[in-house]
Amino acid sequence: MDKYIYDESNGLWYELQGDYYIPCLTLPAEKGHKPIGLWGQRHKHYLQEHKRAVYTTLLTSRKLNCYLADIDEQATKMMFRLVEQMADKEGVTEQLKAESMILWIGRMNEIQARAREIVYSELIYN
User: Fold this and answer.
1) What's residue 29's pLDDT?
2) Cα dihedral value 118, 92, 107, 74, nearest 10
3) Of residues 77, 88, 90, the one with CA closest to residue 119
4) Torsions phi, psi of 53, nearest 5?
């Protein structure tokens, strides 16, 4: 028996798997493939684990990549905006950086951790 056969009536290739021929099906590639960053990957993992129906719908409609790239872009902008706003509000400035680098680093790390938690709760795990 041939490993692959072509059915002209439906235009599909079939692969021999054991005693049966299984159609060789693949999803077409998405248009406008955009890179997905860290935030998009985390949201994808969340969808796979907790929102399987949404994940499958986006995947089969070929909109998953665009959706994740959009989430990644929104999360990145939100993170930068939150860090900037929190740093201004708390007086973490370039002057503080020049005067006490260690204090500035500690406060910026705290601000970034809080901003990350907000991004997670608002966009990534929602």
Assistant:
1) 65
2) 20
3) 77
4) -65, -40
Distances, alpha carbon 74 to alpha carbons 36, 43, 63, 65, in Å: 12, 12, 17, 14
- Which residue range is the domain that position 120 belongs to? 34-124
Summarised one tens digit per residue, pLDDT across range 34-86 is 889 999 999 999 999 999 999 999 998 889 999 999 999 999 999 999 999 99
DSSP of 17-38? ETTEEEE---PPPPSS-----H
Residues paired with 21 in a beta bridge? 16
- Specify the number of domains making up the chain: 2
Instruction: Quick: pLDDT tens for 87-109.
Output: 999 999 999 999 999 999 999 99
**Are 59 and 101 in a shared domain?**
yes
Residues 38 and 67 in one domain: yes
* Structural tokens at position 101: 């680098």
Report whether 25 contacts 37 (CB < 8 A).
Answer: no
